[in-house]
Amino acid sequence: MKSVVSKLGVLAALIAHIEAGLRFPCSTLTNQRLDPAAQPGALPSSHLHMIVGGNAFNATMEGDVAERATCTTCQMSEDFSNYWVAHMFFKDPKNGTFHRVMPQPVSPLLGGSQGASGGLTIYYTQFDLNRDNLQRQPVKAFPPGFRMTVGAPTEVNKPHPGLSYQCIQGGNRGSLVSNFPTTKCSGGIFTTHHFPPCWDGKSLDSPDHQSHMYNTVNSEYFNNAPACPSSHPIRVPQVAFEITWDTTKFNNLWDPAKDKNPFVWSFEGNGAGTHADYMFGWKGDALQRAMDKSECFYDGCGSIKKQAMSEANKCKVKDFVNENIDGWMKVMPGMGGAAKVKKSFSA
């Protein structure tokens, strides 16, 4: 009980100093090998993703996503965007088999946001979490059809600033690091993805899904990113995701004294390859209304419609790939014929 009270006190103190930006939970929509941003049309895509947001999600997504979606797993009911990340797996150091690591349900934030199912926390900030600075730095919402990615599964050295890990111990997130923690985390592994804030003002996408943006993020925190260059002059909301992966269920299956980090992403790369994808899908001018509100936090001073998470959790999409992703498996989905052995391994 004491720890719960302590955590609530810290949260209350944090909220007291936060006066700008949007922050809300989105439950898991589906876990599938689909990637309409980086691999449009691929059915299936190369590796498994955890996806949240609107039910227009598909292997190919063009045009106004909000016009096609009928529900969303996000608390903000006008947000039919999709947000997705590679799925985390545990690789047993004893026999090399894999098991999915589930995201912990997003902790209640504000305004009846309790009840999320898995998922992640979404942020949109204009400047930082303390002020919006709209007079000096106006922010333009993304247009329909816009998409972007951050990070790359092929990266093996160090991810761009803003892509980080933290080892949760006793309710404390711990230091920000650029790779998987090397110790057991009693509260799970916390990951953050900050997207670039500068747009060229004309391209909805680019061949590498990143060149139409310019990443001036130079910090792991929710600080204002430096000014945009003339090549990408349009300041857009600073989008960020946070996820807590429940690694605690595997803590008794490895020994940090003799085993290397056993957690991997679904593409088999190392921790430097952490990445995330975003597909804009806000209804009408809902996001712009929120970004134009001065000194507001959470829901744009009530300018955005909300829904109960119990309602958001009802939103679903069909299983397009139809492969088993649960239980223990010799290889991860898409990595060397997982489909052939999937029935041989069960939890």
Question: Which keywords apply here?
Answer:
17 strands; 6-stranded mixed β-sheet; disordered C terminus; 347 residues; 5 helices; mainly beta
Number of helices: 5
Q: Whole-Å distance between the termini?
A: 33 Å
Count all strands and give the number: 17
The Cα radius of gyration reads: 19 Å
Q: What proportion strand?
A: 15-25%
Low-confidence stretches: 1-17, 338-347
Overall form: globular
Q: How can the largest sheet be summarized? A: 6 strands, mixed
Find the structural class using helix and strand composition. Answer: mainly beta
Question: SSE order, as H and E?
Answer: HEEEHEEEEEEEEEEEEEHEHH
Average pLDDT works out at 87
Strand order of the largest sheet: 9-10-14-7-1-17
Please tell me about this protein's structure.
It is built from five helices and 17 strands. It has 347 residues and is mainly beta. Strands 9-10-14-7-1-17 form a six-stranded mixed β-sheet, with no helix packed on it. Strands 2-3-4-16-8 form a five-stranded antiparallel β-sheet, with no helix packed on it. Strands 6-5-15 form a three-stranded antiparallel β-sheet, with no helix packed on it. A hairpin with a 6-residue loop joins strand 5 and strand 6 (98-100). The radius of gyration is 19 Å and the shape is globular.
